[in-house]
Amino acid sequence: MKKSKQASKARDHLEILQTRVVVERDHVSSISSSDFPFHTSNRYPDHDLVERLRNKIIIAIEKKSQYDMEFDIIGVDASIANALRRIMIAEVPTMAIEKVFIYDNTSIVQDEVLAHRLGLIPIKADPDEFDFKQSTEHPTDQNTIVFKLKQECKRNPKASADEAEYINHNVYSAALIWEPKGDQAERFKDSPIRPVHDDILIAQMRPGQKIELEAHCEKGCGKEHAKWSPAATASYRLMPDIILKEEITGDLADKFASCFAPGVVEVENKTVDGESKKVAKVVNPRLDTVSREVLRHKEFEDKVQLTRIRDHFIFRVESTGILESEKIVFDSLQILSSKCTMLLKALDIKLKEKEETETSQNNENAMELDT
Amino acid sequence: MKITPDTKVQNAATFEIFREDHTMGNVIRHKLLQEPQVIFAGYKIPHPLEHNVIIRVQTTNETKPEAMVAKALNDLITEVGYLRTKFMVHK
């Protein structure tokens, strides 16, 4: 009896090591994934990938608004989750101001600083409608969006005491006026191209100062410059899992609950043998910050284990307002698979080259033998 | 992409992939390690200013590193495709 209990305890421990990242008082253990062949009990020499995926992968959307979403991916390896995160930040293309032609700038903001500030303004334009512009190519209506900005600051002679002294002294992103080229006016008549926000302060001027410029937007990726990144934040964390090894009752239960973020642990009243007692119960581990406060108290030392589920990723994707969050995620999946296809093609070409050189070498050898 | 077979070890090769980074390197390494025929798989980015990754693969005698990388990529496409259909359901 004792032996089997020990065995089941060992099995539990092994399962925790395989499926959980364990957060301890002063360090984090069991970090690396052990999900590969011949590790402990994993033996899947003739595994069917699709079958394994079908049993494992779950996607659940937790919160969704147009430009902000939280969703769970369960059952993938950290490398895939991280690849998706990296692609969302650095490889999903958008449009941003890349070239600025300054006709007149007498403000105190230097030309290059002004150009940099313009570049960082998110531009509401569907990147799928445009092509990448190579440096050798000329701008066309297929790869460039043109904005004009012209503003001059003047004194307001009729200003009352509580009114601004100047007219047009704040240059906001709303001053960027889209100039449709070619068939762009027709193509984007349902969603005119404009800055996402109209109230981004670009520069401040004083009477007599003037800014006049033309800005060209091009398509690009976040890995070249962060201004092209469609994600304001794209991050993931692992789902916390609080394992109670023993029941925590009475006043200790209250203390236990206060160790966690609000809503994670609740104290319930349970009636056992006609007697009511307080029992701590984990209700919503998602809200937990995994602060380790509970591990500071001696009384909870052997009663609780803080863990995170190794293959349960909680993604949070906030958009800059150019693309919808959902589209950023969907595009990242698309880009990941197209990168794979591209590499497969490259590999194929290399293999064919190798084959050709080998056969031609063989032929040469054979000819030598003949002579 | 550039493939260099190892001169000293059988069934081993390094794959140099240009203009890729940790995104693909790590994911391919993980998928290679899922294969029982792969003895070794690792990746590195030799220099932060050069935009390429080097993936080294050693396999058993049953197969070739090139075949395993191709399988890894195909498996990855399947998995991502699967994620995509799952994601579509919520759309």
Strand and helix order of chain B: EEHEEH
User: Secondary-structure element sequence of chain A?
Assistant: HEEHEEHEHEEEEEEHEEEEHEEEH
Output the CATH topology of the domain at 94-228 in chain A.
Answer: RNA Polymerase Alpha Subunit, Chain A, domain 2
Morphology call of chain B:
flat
GO molecular function (chain B): DNA binding; DNA-directed RNA polymerase activity; protein dimerization activity
Subcellular location (chain B): Nucleus
GO biological process, one term (chain B): transcription by RNA polymerase II
Keywords (chain B): DNA-directed RNA polymerase, Nucleus, Transcription
In short:
The complex is a heterodimer of chains A (371) and B (91). Chain A has 371 residues and is α+β, with helices and mostly antiparallel strands. Among the domains of chain A are: 12-88 and 233-245 and 303-318, RNA polymerase, RBP11-like subunit (Gyrase A, domain 2), CATH 3.30.1360.10; 94-228, Beta Complex (RNA Polymerase Alpha Subunit, Chain A, domain 2), CATH 2.170.120.
Topology:
The complex is a heterodimer of chains A (371) and B (91).
Chain A: H1 2-19, E1 20-23, E2 28-29, H2 49-56, E3 58-65, E4 68-74, H3 78-90, E5 94-105, H4 111-119, E6 123-124, E7 145-152, E8 154-155, E9 166-167, E10 170-172, E11 177-179, H5 184-187, E12 194-195, E13 201-204, E14 210-220, E15 231-244, H6 251-258, E16 265-272, E17 275-282, E18 304-319, H7 325-370
Antiparallel strand pairs in A: 1-2, 1-18, 3-4, 4-18, 5-14, 6-12, 7-11, 7-14, 8-9, 10-13, 15-18, 16-17
Chain B: E1 2-5, E2 12-18, H1 22-33, E3 38-44, E4 52-59, H2 65-89
Antiparallel strand pairs in B: 1-2, 2-4, 3-4
Helix pairs in contact in B: 1-2
Protein described:
Chain A is α+β, with helices and mostly antiparallel strands. Among the domains of chain A are: 106 residues, RNA polymerase, RBP11-like subunit (Gyrase A, domain 2); 135 residues, RNA Polymerase Alpha Subunit, Chain A, domain 2 (Beta Complex). In chain A, helix 3 packs across helix 7. Chain A is flat. Chain B has 91 residues and is of the alpha+beta class. In chain B, helix 1 packs across helix 2. At the A-B interface, helix 2, strand 3, helix 3 and helix 7 of A face helix 1 and helix 2 of B.
